[in-house]
């Protein structure tokens, strides 16, 4: 990775024809959730390891330094930024003014598209009506709240700190602040959760009236507190059959409420309610990921930053790129990634992308009821509901 972060010329060729997004990573959390393996840090975990460079108080200025680095690396890039997504961690642990300053830096350096989507994630307990109003006035127009569950005993297993009912209240507060687009994140398959618990969570989320809901099966990652509890026998392991049943419940309930799936784990009430930033990822567009551990992709070059906030800040303070490494994607790499990602979308993937073995596998998947017949006849592989349940297996077959 060059110290100045420069990219090969071929990565910038034709950039004006591709959308550009920014992901801003805020690595701070008040507490660590038992299931989380993201690159996040509590104040205790950072104490003595990063000094003043890793402090939350200085973080916005540090991240703005990387936005300015991005301007130098991308040069006379004519593109206005199409999407900005602030994630974490808990971005809303920072003052609203800091998030607004970070967004303003992108606007100053690159410009924002007239219809740019600007999102921040938020912990329900870390915002209030005034905070949300400040974000909206500062240019944010979408907010994503981590709800996970409406049941207290499920939240306890996940080590979530918010109280049931607070995420729903946040949706109303966001609407009052002028946010047109609001997402709630849900997790299903937590040990101890029942079908009735899951239905109650769905009902609570839908009753709050967001225009977007993400629902993810719980994945037990090695090294997390939840994995250790399962290994000690304190809670049972998650079950794939239970995950499938919960997914079917979710799709049925949300379809009945007017939400339409557009990616395997995401539902929206309209096309305008979809998360455009995630669609940039899924469709292989360009994005710059700023922050510790953030990943970027521009023109077939992918790179990632150092993980620790102290090391990240030190690199920028010394005028160096915080990049830790990068890879150049071959045409074959990009073909395979398109299949991996686009098959999960509602409009699927062109059959023309498939190699002969993959095309043969697609015919078997069609016969097995995993792909929709009408789109297939039109030259696209689109998952059926049963295919969505087996998406990972279908993708593997089509890639092979």
From TrEMBL:
Transmembrane segments: none annotated. The keyword Transferase does not apply. Its main location: cytoplasm. It is found in: Cytoplasm. CDD domains: Radical_SAM. Keywords: 4Fe-4S, Chaperone, Cytoplasm, Heme, Iron, Iron-sulfur, Metal-binding, S-adenosyl-L-methionine. Residues 14-260 form the Radical SAM core domain. The keyword GTP-binding does not apply. It holds the Pfam family Radical_SAM. Belongs to the anaerobic coproporphyrinogen-III oxidase family. HemW subfamily. Probably acts as a heme chaperone, transferring heme to an unknown acceptor. Binds one molecule of heme per monomer, possibly covalently. Binds 1 [4Fe-4S] cluster. The cluster is coordinated with 3 cysteines and an exchangeable S-adenosyl-L-methionine. NCBIfam families: hemN_rel. This is Heme chaperone HemW. It comes from Streptomyces flavotricini. The gene is hemW.
